[in-house]
Amino acid sequence: MSTAQTADRTIFERRESEVRSYCRSFDTVFTSASGSTLTDTEGREYTDFLAGCSSLNYGHNDPDMKSALVDHITGDGLTHGLDMYTDTKADFLRAFDEIILKPRGMDHKVMMVGPTGTNAVEAAIKLARKTTGRKNVIAFTNGFHGMTLGALALTGNAGKRGGAGGVSLNDTTHLPYEGSLGDVDTLELAREMLRNGSSGIDAPAAFIVEPVQGEGGLNAASKEWLQGIAALAKELGALLIIDDIQAGIGRTGSFFSTEDFGFEPDMITLAKSFSGMGLPFAALLLKPELDIWKPAEHNGTFRGNTHAFVTARVALEKFWKDDSFAKEVAEKSDLLEKRLTEIARHIPGAYVKGRGMMRGIDVGSGELAAHICADAFDKGLIIETSGAEDEVVKVLAPLTTPLAQFKAGLDTLEDAVSASLSLKIAAE
Amino acid sequence: MSTAQTADRTIFERRESEVRSYCRSFDTVFTSASGSTLTDTEGREYTDFLAGCSSLNYGHNDPDMKSALVDHITGDGLTHGLDMYTDTKADFLRAFDEIILKPRGMDHKVMMVGPTGTNAVEAAIKLARKTTGRKNVIAFTNGFHGMTLGALALTGNAGKRGGAGGVSLNDTTHLPYEGSLGDVDTLELAREMLRNGSSGIDAPAAFIVEPVQGEGGLNAASKEWLQGIAALAKELGALLIIDDIQAGIGRTGSFFSTEDFGFEPDMITLAKSFSGMGLPFAALLLKPELDIWKPAEHNGTFRGNTHAFVTARVALEKFWKDDSFAKEVAEKSDLLEKRLTEIARHIPGAYVKGRGMMRGIDVGSGELAAHICADAFDKGLIIETSGAEDEVVKVLAPLTTPLAQFKAGLDTLEDAVSASLSLKIAAE
Amino acid sequence: MSTAQTADRTIFERRESEVRSYCRSFDTVFTSASGSTLTDTEGREYTDFLAGCSSLNYGHNDPDMKSALVDHITGDGLTHGLDMYTDTKADFLRAFDEIILKPRGMDHKVMMVGPTGTNAVEAAIKLARKTTGRKNVIAFTNGFHGMTLGALALTGNAGKRGGAGGVSLNDTTHLPYEGSLGDVDTLELAREMLRNGSSGIDAPAAFIVEPVQGEGGLNAASKEWLQGIAALAKELGALLIIDDIQAGIGRTGSFFSTEDFGFEPDMITLAKSFSGMGLPFAALLLKPELDIWKPAEHNGTFRGNTHAFVTARVALEKFWKDDSFAKEVAEKSDLLEKRLTEIARHIPGAYVKGRGMMRGIDVGSGELAAHICADAFDKGLIIETSGAEDEVVKVLAPLTTPLAQFKAGLDTLEDAVSASLSLKIAAE
Amino acid sequence: MSTAQTADRTIFERRESEVRSYCRSFDTVFTSASGSTLTDTEGREYTDFLAGCSSLNYGHNDPDMKSALVDHITGDGLTHGLDMYTDTKADFLRAFDEIILKPRGMDHKVMMVGPTGTNAVEAAIKLARKTTGRKNVIAFTNGFHGMTLGALALTGNAGKRGGAGGVSLNDTTHLPYEGSLGDVDTLELAREMLRNGSSGIDAPAAFIVEPVQGEGGLNAASKEWLQGIAALAKELGALLIIDDIQAGIGRTGSFFSTEDFGFEPDMITLAKSFSGMGLPFAALLLKPELDIWKPAEHNGTFRGNTHAFVTARVALEKFWKDDSFAKEVAEKSDLLEKRLTEIARHIPGAYVKGRGMMRGIDVGSGELAAHICADAFDKGLIIETSGAEDEVVKVLAPLTTPLAQFKAGLDTLEDAVSASLSLKIAAE
C-alpha cells in the first residue's frame, strides 16, 4: 500500500462514524467498478461476490443503464420530482406493468416509498395495521427487515435490536422460521400458537417473511412451508407480506422469489436491485383493495427516485422480456450449488444453504468463516459472511457474472477455504 | 390537454398507489427541468417555488453537478459501494471537512445513514437513547421529522400519526414550539415541566427541533429560544438534535440554520439539498464523543450514495468556498420578505412567517391558500401550502433562482392572491 | 424502648421487604386504635393526623361498624363471595343508591373492582379506551393514580415511575395541573395543545384528574378549572374520570369532592375510606351508557369485599343520611384553615394549601417538613409530608376527630413547627 | 323463587356493572357460608366446589379464624395500618417465618403488596426488570396473571387482553406451556428460541409460570419441565417467578406448589387463600439479594391488611405446624383423581387434568361443560369451568371439605354429567 493512499484514508477515520463496517473487511479504497469487477486505487482488481448485498444483481455499471442514465442527465431529465408525474415514471411503470406484473397475473399497485428497503417495510406494516385494525405483526427467527424502529421490531438479531437504545420493539411476535428448531414442524407450531385464543399472542395484522433469509444465514423456506404460512394468514384474516428485498429481482432465479409458489402475497417489498444499477430505490407492491392510503399519508422526500426509474426500466427491458436471463441464472445456480457442495465436503460438518444464486456454506463457526472471507479478499475476491453467528460464507455474485469469472471466483473461494483450513489445523 | 397525454396518465391511476400526492396539485406530466424551471409534455414551462421541498436549493440539474456526475458514470465510478471506502467518498468528506466543518470549528463526525431524512432522524434518536440510557425524546408541536415509526412518534401532525394504524408512538413527549401558545413563554414552560420531578415526563435523552418548521407552517424559532432549549438540554443531561433537513444547506442563508446562534448541537440531521442535485442522500453529524456505534449497528443498503457524493462535493466547492453565495441568498431573502409583506397586506389578517428563503404567508385558511396555489399553478408557478391547516402559502424557491425569474414568480404569486381574493369576495 | 420490644422488631428487618416505608417514620409497634388515637406496645398514645392516607375518614374502629362487622362474622355472613349475589352486597348497594346516588341525581353504575385504588384506575382507563377507541389518557403534573403499570403511567412522580424498571409508561400525556406553572393559564394551555391537530398529542380517550392532589402536594384545583377540563373533555369526545380515591368520601366536605361543581364525571374512582373502617375496598362508578363490559372482562378474586360491604353500608347510614356530618366537617375545615394559616405565618415563605379537611402547609423544603413531622411524632402526633419535594406538611385527620383532640393535635403541630424552626435558626 | 327475592335482585341489575359474572352462573342470593356449604335467601344449601377460585382452601368462616378475628376487632386491634409496624403483623411474620419459611430452608423476604394477586405480579415484574436491567418477561400459553396492564400483558386469554381497549401489552413474550403443542418438547423449544441471538426475542428479565394453570384449563406442568425452565432462567441470567396465587397454600398438597421440585424460585406470588379466610391479602416473596426496593417505591394504601394478618396466622398455626393436613389433602386428592377418572369414562374423549386438589375433566366442549355446571348448580353444587374454551369442569373444593360432603359433591357432579350427556344424546 502506498504512503499516498494511507494518507488518503485518514479522512475516513477522522470524519466518518465508527458505524462504518464493510470498509473494515475490505480495507482498500475503490475507484471504479464494471460488471463483476471492482478496482482500487492501486489498480488491483477484485471479483465481486457481494454485489452490494444483492443490490447489483446485474453487475456494476451496466452499459445500457449507464447510457440511458447519461442521456437522461444530459437531456435535463428530472432528477428530483417528489411524487409528481413525469414521463420517466410513466415509462418505468408501463415497463413494470407489461414486463413483470401483467404476465404474472398480478394486479398489485406500486407505492413509491422512500428509497430504502426499511421504508418499504415500514409502509407495509403501517398499511397492514390500518387495513386490519390489528397491531401485531408476525416475523420470524433470524429475519432481517431494516433498522428504523418499526422494521427493527421485526428484525431478529439481538445486536441490531440493541441499537434501539432500550426502547421497546413492540407489536410484533417472533415465531421460528422453517428449520430453525431442528425437527420441530414450525408451520404446525405457528398454527397451534395462533389458533389458540389463550396463547397471549394477539391476532396478527400480517406475517412478514423473507423467502430466503439473506442476513439470517441463507435459510431458504420451502414452497410448502410458505404456502402453509400464506394459508394460515388467510385463515386468520391477516395479510401476507413477502419481503423480497434481498431475494427478489432474479436472485433466486425468477423476478419474485415466490412467483411459482402458488399463492399471492398481499404485499411485496422491493429495494436493492430494483433500480438495476444500484441506485437508491424501493417500492411496496400492494393488492389494489388494500390501497386505502390517503394522499401523502406515508410520504418521503426521495420517494420515486427519477434516475432509478430510468435504470430500472432499462433493467426490465434488457433482462426480463423473455426467459433467457432466467434460464442463464438457473444454470449458474446449478453450477454454484455443485461447486459449493464440493467445497463444503472439505470442511468437517459444513453444508450448503440457500436457493438460486443466493447460496453459501455453513462452515460451523464465525471464526472460520471470517478467516475464509479475509483470505479470499487477499486473493482478490470480495465475499462476506451471514447468519446469527456469521457462520455462513455467502455467495451473492452478480447474476450477470461471466461464466469464466464466476468459476474463477469459486476457485478463489476454494483456495481460501483450503488455506483457512490448513491454518486452522496448524493452529490445533 | 392532448388525448395522447391523457392516455399516458392512466398508467399512474392504474398502477401507482393512491398515496401519491403532489401530482394531484400539479396535475401534468413533467419531462425536463433546469435551474428553476420545469417543463411538461406540452412544452409548457413552470417556475418552481417548491424546489422538491427544499431538496433543490441549487436548482434543477446544475450544469457543474451534471457534468461531474456524467463524468463519474461514464468513467465507471462506483454507483453502489455499501459503506466501503471509495475515492469519491474521500473526496466528498475532504470537501465537507475543509469547506464546511473546519471553518465553523465543528469536530462532528459524519454518519452515512440510509438516503432519507427519516433515517437520519431514526439514527439520531437511537444514538441519543444508547448514549444517555434514557428513552424519552422531546419533540415540538407542529414538528415534522419523518414517517418511519421512530421518527413518526416525533412528528406532530395527527393525520400522519394516524397512518401508523393504531400502534403507540411511544417514548416521546411533545412540548409547544415557540409562539404556538400565544403569549405563553414556551421556553419557560418547558423548563418548568422538565425540572419538575413529578411532572410525569420522563427525563429526556434528547430534544429534537427544527429551527424553522417547514411542514408545520414556517414557524421560525428565535435565536434566544433555541439557545434556551440548548441550555436546558445541557442542564438536564440531554442531547440537542438539530433537524436541519429542510432548513439547512443554505435555505435560511447559512449552511447550517443555527450556525450563528452560539450553541453547538450534539447532532445535526441533513438530507434534502445535501446532495446538491436532488439525489437521495442523508447523513447524521454527531459529536465525536457520541460515536459509540459498533460497526453496522445501524446500517442500510444505500447508506452513502456514491452518485450523491459526487454532486454534493461539487455543490460545496461551487457555493460554499466563500461567502458570495450566502450574501446573494441574504439579498434574495430580503427581497422575498419585502414582497411577501406587501402581498400579505392585501389579505385581511394575513402575515408573513419564516426565515431566510423559507418564508410564506399565513393567509388564515387552508381553503384560501389552496385557491392561491391552484391559481398560481394555472399561471405557471409551482408553489404549495404548509401548516397544521395548510393555511400558509410557502415559498421555497431554489436559492439560485435568477433574480428576474424570482421577481416574476413573486408577481405571479401576487396575481394568484388577487384572483383568489376576488373570487372569494365574489362568493361572499 | 424496652429490650423486649426491640427484639420483637427484628422480624420486620429480617423478613419484611425494604420497600416498607411508614414504619421508618413512625418507628414503633402499634397495638390498638380507636377513633383518632393509636396506641403502641409501650402504651403510648398518638393522635392520628394521617388517617391511613385518608382511608380512615371516620376514624379507627368506629363502634357501629365494628359491631355490624362482628355480627356479620359471628353470623357466618360470607367473607369471600367473588362477585356472586349476596344479601350483604344488596344492602350495601341499596344504601349507596338511596343515600348517595339518587339524592345527587347520579345514574352511575357501580363496578366492583379489585380492592385497591389502582385497580379502579386501571378499570377506568381500560373502559375509557374501549368505549372511545382511543388510547391516549391525559393526566396531570404531580398526579398520583397508583403503582400497577397502567396507573403508574398516569402518575407523575419520577421515583415511582422509575420503579417500573425501564419499561415505557405509554399511551398517556401529562399536562400541567392548575397552578403548577406560575401564572400560566394551564386550562388554556391544555385547550391549545389538544385542539391543535399538529401538537403530536393523540386525541384523548379520557382525562383523569384528582380534584385535590393528595400525594402531589395538596394542590386543589378550582371549580372553574375543573369545569373547564370537563368542558374540554366533552368538546374533544373524551371521558372525564375523577379520581376521588383520596379526596372523596367527605374529605373535602362533601361525599364526592366535585359534587357541587356543576359537571358530571363520566367515571369516578373510589377506594380508601369507601369501606368506612379501613378495609380493602374499591369501586368504579361509571355512567350507564359506558357499561359495555362483557361479564368478567375485568375481574379479580377479591372484587366486592363482603366485610367491606357491611362497614361501608353502616358508614353511609351513619354519616350521610342528612347533612349534619357535612356541616361538622365544614366547621372543622374552617378551623383547620385558620390554624394552619396562623402556623404558616411563623415560617418564612410558607403558605397553606388544599381544601376542606385535606390541607397542609408548604414549608418550602422537604428537610424542614421532615423535621416538623419527626418532632411531631416525638410529641405524640402522627403526620406526614406530601409534594414533589416532600415540602408540604399534610393534615389528614379523621373527619370524626373530637374537637378537643383536633385542637390539641394542631397545638402539637404548632409546637413541632416552632421547635424545628428554632433548630433551623440555631443551625444557621 | 319468591317475589320478594326477585324484587331484591333488581338492585344488582340497576346499579351493578354488567361486568359481574359469577352471579350469572349461580343466580341466587347467598346469605351465609360455613365450611364447604353456602346458604341462600331461600334457605337452600349448596356444596361449594369453587371455593372462591381457591381463595377458600380452608372453607368458609373457619371457627378459629373467626374467633381470632372477632377478638381482634372487639379489642380495637388495628384495621388499617398502612405499612406501619403492628404486633399483629409481627405475629403473622413470625408464624410465617417459623412454620413455613424456615422449615423449607427459604430465606425469602415478604413484600406486602396491595391485596390482590395482580398487584403481587406487578411488583414481581417491576422488580425483575429493575434488578436485571432487562424488560422482556416470558409468560406461557393459557397463563393467567391478572388484569392490571402489567399483569394483563402476561395473561394469555384474548378476551381478557381485549379488555385493555387496544393499548399494546408490551415487553412480554408468550411461549407454549408444557403440553400445549401436542408432542412438541416445549422446554426444548424455549431453549432454542431463547438461546438464539437472532430469534427476535429479547433477553428475558424473568420467566413467570403457574405450576398448575387454574384459569387456563388445569394444565399441570411436570416437575421435569419446571426444573428445565428454572435451569434455563438461570442460564440466561433471568429470574424465575412462580405464580402460586391459585396453586399455592395447599391446593396441590404442599404449601408451595413446587416446594418439592428441587429448585428455588427467585420470587413467589401469593394471594387468594393466603389470608386463610378469604380476606383480601397478597404478598410477594423475594430472595433477599433482590430486595433493592427503595422505601415506598412500590406502595398501595391497603398493603398489609391487618385483619388478614390475624386470620393468616391462625391458618398457618392450625394447618401447617405438622404434616397431618398435607396428608389429609393428599388422600382427598387421590380420591378426587379416582372419582374424576371414573366420571370421565362416561364422556367420549374426556380426560382428567390437574394436580392435587386442583383437578377437573376436559369434557371436550365448553357447551357440554356449561351444561354440566348448570345442572350441578340446580342439584346444589357450585362448580365452574376453566380453559381456553371453558371446556374443563374444574373441582376446586375447600381442602377441608368433610369426606362425606366431598363424596356427595362428587356424586352430584356425576349425576350432572349423566344428565347433561342424556340431554346431549337426546338432542343429537
From TrEMBL, chains A, B, C, D:
Enzyme class label: transferase
Cofactor(s) it depends on: pyridoxal 5'-phosphate
Pathway in which this enzyme or protein is active: Amine and polyamine biosynthesis; ectoine biosynthesis; L-ectoine from L-aspartate 4-semialdehyde: step 1/3
Name of the protein in question: Diaminobutyrate--2-oxoglutarate transaminase
PROSITE patterns registered for this protein in UniProt: AA_TRANSFER_CLASS_3
Keywords: Aminotransferase, Pyridoxal phosphate, Transferase
Family label: Belongs to the class-III pyridoxal-phosphate-dependent aminotransferase family.
Recorded superkingdom: Bacteria
CDD domains: OAT_like
InterPro entries: Aminotrans_3 (IPR005814), Aminotrans_3_PPA_site (IPR049704), Dat (IPR004637), Ectoine_EctB (IPR012773), PyrdxlP-dep_Trfase (IPR015424), PyrdxlP-dep_Trfase_major (IPR015421), PyrdxlP-dep_Trfase_small (IPR015422)
Pfam families linked: Aminotran_3
EC number assigned by the record: 2.6.1.76
GO molecular function annotations of the record: diaminobutyrate-2-oxoglutarate transaminase activity
